[in-house]
Structures are given as structure tokens and as C-alpha cells.
Sequence to fold (153 residues):
Amino acid sequence: MTLIVSQSIEISATAEAVWSIISDIHNAESVISGIKEIHVLEESDGPTIAGLKWKETREWMGKDAVEVMWITDANAPSFYETRAESHGSIYQSRMELEPIPTGTRLTMHFHCQPATTSAKIMWILTGWMAKKSLSKVIDQDLKDVKIAVENVS
Fold:
């Protein structure tokens, strides 16, 4: 019943350079082509980006999808984790950076856990379609980050 998707991309830049792009949530809509709008609701409350909360609008399966997301944990320039709760499900993602000889491997892990009975039924009926669509979205997001980082570096 749980949906898990993980995808990676190699970027010809340092982890610090990649981190500076992916952790700049305020300007994510200028980097990620699938994001229509970002509205920050709460700033982080310490030296890391943990606690940052925002509303993100994307096009999802032909419609605008608005999600409230927040960063639950972060360790620059290694990873950050986000959470959202919507439509009876809990969504968690992790952006992970790994130094490699040619630069940095950026991996996005996405985990969806339906929590309500209606969400579980919906995932049984449409989960295969959502997973396929989500894989395309993650792939494009990673490509957008690669382009942004490599154009700056």
C-alpha cells in the first residue's frame, strides 16, 4: 500500500553548490519547471532550514495541486527531509547529496503512506498511475536542478 519512488542524477558540481540551489525554497519556482508558485508560510527557526514551511502549487495530472510542506530535518550539505499531509495520506521526501569523483549524486526519495480508508482505496485503484506520473515529475525536477547548478558553476 505504500508508494516509494527513488531517483538519482549526477551533477558536475560540488555538494555545496547543489545544496545552495535545492535548499533555496524561496526561489524554487525559478529552478523547478513544474512548480507554479511558492508561498513561504513560516521561516526556519534556527541555523538550518529545518522548520521552513511553505505552500507549493504544481500542475499534477492536468490540475493545479496545492500542498503545504515543511522541512522536518536537514544537515547541510548532505540532506533535507520534507513532510506533507494531504488527501488522507502522509508524504515524506528526502533530498540526499553524495559526493562522487565527477561532482555530486543527488537522489530524491519519495514515500507516500495512505492513512485513511478512502486514501487506501484510492491508492489501490490509481496507485500505479500516480507512481508513473510521480516518477516523471521527480525525473524532471532532478534535471531542472542539474541545469540550474551546472549553469551557475
User: Anything to note?
Assistant: The chain has one domain: 3-152. The chain is about 30% helix and 45% strand.
